[in-house]
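[SOLVED] Need 3D model of a two-part complex

Original post:
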Amino acid sequence: ETGVTQTPRHLVMGMTNKKSLKCEQHLGHNAMYWYKQSAKKPLELMFVYSLEERVENNSVPSRFSPECPNSSHLFLHLHTLQPEDSALYLCASSQGRAIGNQPQHFGDGTRLSIL
Amino acid sequence: GIQVEQSPPDLILQEGANSTLRCNFSDSVNNLQWFHQNPWGQLINLFYIPSGTKQNGRLSATTVATERYSLLYISSSQTTDSGVYFCAVNRDDKIIFGKGTRLHILP
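Solution:
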């Protein structure tokens, strides 16, 4: 139990569907992250929120829309995805405001498959 | 941007063997972390080690920031050590992961 919970664990969706990934952390952290892990590629940082403000957006397509209503919850809203978006999506959290200056704790990920 | 290179890309060892995994980075960094991703995809933070040496049981890590590398040592490996080991560096609010070393421990 890492203190970071992601749901669902698996998701299969069509390209025209709209779905959301959820992440919740129980560690009292104030920074949360979304990562994408594709086969045979390094982990890619997608979004970072610190104190509920987005501080990093690594040129992610607009079909991915993050939302951070409070410091414990992070969502990734998905719309009109492409087959190449099939991947493992990982959420992480850390203490402190500065990105990467504290250890990150990861959830178990959501395995997303786009048909 | 900063390049992070991990070696070897793949490693197969017999249970009980020792191993050394390496992470090179192309520029100075603020921090470095080692992670283990098990065969079920769970990513666990092993070490947060911007410099110096740390030990945790059979694992230890050393980062020599001035020479831009970090090493992860695994001693007396067990089958549960199998998975992918990533290093990630941080600089200027950017986090960059290496491609990982895939470790397979044979029983």
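Edit: Chain A is about 0% helix and 55% strand.
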